[in-house]
């Protein structure tokens, strides 16, 4: 049995109480509650995130192992480097930050996923994360082609920690370009780790890897306790960091 959160006063359990491997829902920690900013902040600070479908209660997860991307381990292939460089210098093609967060999260909700018939980005979650966006906690990285949204991703940012949530692409490589832009932004602002939640082949090809839940939890306090990023805006100069960081803080390097 997993605990039920009856109201806002009920704290999330210790993540180590999540259902183990071999169970029906490994990583499931709790159910119930609401997606308030306070609850979401508590959850992400513990390495917990909501993931559920239509007609389900809010379900809270803490998987083990955890998929992460150490920013200095980002794999920039020769092909992706050429794609990004061409995109950055082609007229009518833009990278934008926070230009249309709602459009990005909505597009992510409707993007087809291999092996999934529906979406976990339900309307309640869209509204909660849009509210969090107005509070300056969630952000979008977007690729635009000739004035149309071509792809992008959205994320949660607490201190110097980034939690990648979902991405979508309507044009070839549009989401990869957005992710490369996020990597450059992280390098420019001393962010060394991006949470990717669960393993996918796509993230592994870009340099993501799995670490234990215990190792992930140790990463969180120094990063989430760091100073907030004051300005989430696009700067073309950040592309200079595409091939690698020039100065990462010691706490921003992987083990």
Automatic annotation (TrEMBL):
The keyword DNA damage does not apply. It catalyses: N-terminal L-lysyl-[protein] + L-leucyl-tRNA(Leu) = N-terminal L-leucyl-L-lysyl-[protein] + tRNA(Leu) + H(+); L-phenylalanyl-tRNA(Phe) + an N-terminal L-alpha-aminoacyl-[protein] = an N-terminal L-phenylalanyl-L-alpha-aminoacyl-[protein] + tRNA(Phe); N-terminal L-arginyl-[protein] + L-leucyl-tRNA(Leu) = N-terminal L-leucyl-L-arginyl-[protein] + tRNA(Leu) + H(+). GO terms for molecular function: leucyl-tRNA--protein transferase activity. Keywords: Acyltransferase, Cytoplasm, Transferase. It comes from Piscinibacter gummiphilus. This is Leucyl/phenylalanyl-tRNA--protein transferase. One of its GO terms (biological process) is protein catabolic process. GO terms for cellular component: cytoplasm.
